[in-house]
Design a protein that fits this description.
Elements: E1 2-3, H1 14-26, H2 36-56, E2 61-65, H3 68-82, E3 89-93, H4 98-109, E4 113-117, H5 126-132, E5 138-142, H6 156-166, E6 171-175, E7 189-193, E8 204-208, H7 234-246, H8 252-266, E9 271-273, E10 285-290, H9 295-304, E11 307-308, H10 323-326, H11 331-335, E12 337-341, H12 348-365
Parallel strand pairs: 1-11, 3-4, 3-5, 5-6, 6-7
Antiparallel strand pairs: 2-8, 7-8, 9-10, 10-12
Helix pairs in contact: 1-7, 2-7, 3-4, 5-6, 8-12, 9-12
Length: 367
């Protein structure tokens, strides 16, 4: 099997598996319990929090969630409610993950003024374009660090500075699911997910900077300072921390995989690469269109060869995504788009096999 759909989910690494098993055996106490087993679990949770904050290079608070969807919902609804007396304008993009996009839809129904900007309108200066839209009424700016379908990088440290310069009171949130551990990210609120970096599904986190107020989504026992009630899944959190520690800090090998595949694709007729190059393109994602062959047909052909890729976001589940259009990708190219996403577990041999299979598929299906 050649697995190249790591933007959808990753195979759990051995470090994460071991950490989860050890926690289940030895640290299964409830973090809220006052006895020794509860204290042991609380220490494990604190160590995990410190590990993730260190990788983020941030000093605020970290709240563990069930994943990025919950983190994004908590960030957007939490800020909208906490700061509604200050203003009702929210600025975001037309290329966000559904967990942000659908939340923004709901906030629009709640009479918040939601502005969505397209990267295609300012591809080389998107940070300035977003910051220029900030006004005194803006309470929140939400912009993903790396687009999960195209691999477009927004320089969130730069955008964070520009937003604060325009309106110091505006809160900046970034969905860093595809960027965490891979590029520098910044924000007052940062969403993360464990299963994108070889942890387990059902585990994520939301970073919250000091001084930022957040209304809770859920009410209950008051765990995690009342922001996120519910018994903490120590086993999943331990695995998340282990995956963060295990994820390499140097990703030149992944860049080599991306560059190699780009080179192979340039030798094939009728291929359009949709992912940006240079500093705007993340090394872990390469999106391209195969003229004359629909995505679904090529995807299943590759699967027959034991090669797993995607036609876009796994959350779309075959539905037409509006994200490619936000980057200027034509409807025709979107219909034939393939997303290959790499991880440290991939090799050049995987690229060799994929390239051969793509050539065979093009010969078979292109009309």
């Amino acid at each position: 099997m050649i697995y190249l759909d790591n933007a959808a989910t990753t195979r759990p690494c051995e470090a994460a598996i071991t950490a989860a098993v050890n926690a289940a055996r030895d640290s299964f106490g409830n973090v809220s319990s006052l006895h020794g087993m509860g204290i042991k679990s609380e220490k494990l949770l604190s160590a995990a929090k410190a590990c993730i904050l260190k990788r983020l290079c941030c000093k605020g608070e970290l709240y563990f969630t069930s994943g990025a969807t919950e983190s994004n919902n908590l960030a957007l609804f939490g800020i909208a409610d906490a700061y509604k007396r200050r203003g009702r304008t929210i600025i975001s993009t037309a290329a966000e993950h559904p967990s942000v996009a659908r939340t923004l839809d709901k906030l629009s129904e709640m009479r918040y003024n939601v502005i969505r900007l397209s990267p295609k309108d300012a591809p080389d200066s998107f940070e300035e374009y977003v910051a220029d839209a900030v006004t005194e009424d803006t309470i929140l700016v939400s912009c993903m660090a790396v687009n999960n379908e195209i691999g477009y990088i927004t320089d969130t440290p730069k955008l964070y500075r520009l937003v604060k310069r325009k309106n110091p009171d505006a809160v900046f949130h970034t969905d860093a699911v595809q960027g965490f551990c891979k590029i520098p990210v910044a924000g007052d609120l940062i969403s993360m997910s464990a299963h994108k970096i070889h942890g387990f599904k059902g585990s994520g986190a939301l970073y919250v900077a000091k001084g930022v107020r957040l209304s809770p989504l859920m009410y209950g026992g008051g765990q995690q300072k009342g922001v996120r009630s519910g018994t903490e899944p120590v086993e999943l959190i331990a695995a998340f921390s282990a995956a963060v520690s295990d994820y390499p800090t140097e990703l030149s090998s992944i860049r080599e995989l991306n560059d190699t595949l780009r080179g192979r694709l340039s030798d094939m007729d009728g291929i359009t690469i949709n992912s940006p190059s240079g500093d705007r393109g993340i090394s872990t994602i390469l999106n391209f269109s195969i003229g004359g062959v629909r995505s679904e047909i090529m995807l299943h052909f590759l699967e027959e060869r034991g090669i797993y890729v995607s036609s876009g976001s796994a959350c779309s589940k075959g539905k037409v995504s509006g994200v490619p259009a936000a980057f200027g990708v034509s409807a025709q190219n979107a219909d034939s788009a393939i997303r290959v996403s790499f991880s440290p577990q991939n090799s050049l041999t995987d690229i060799d096999e994929l390239s051969l299979a793509l050539c065979d598929g093009i010969k078979r299906f292109r009309r």
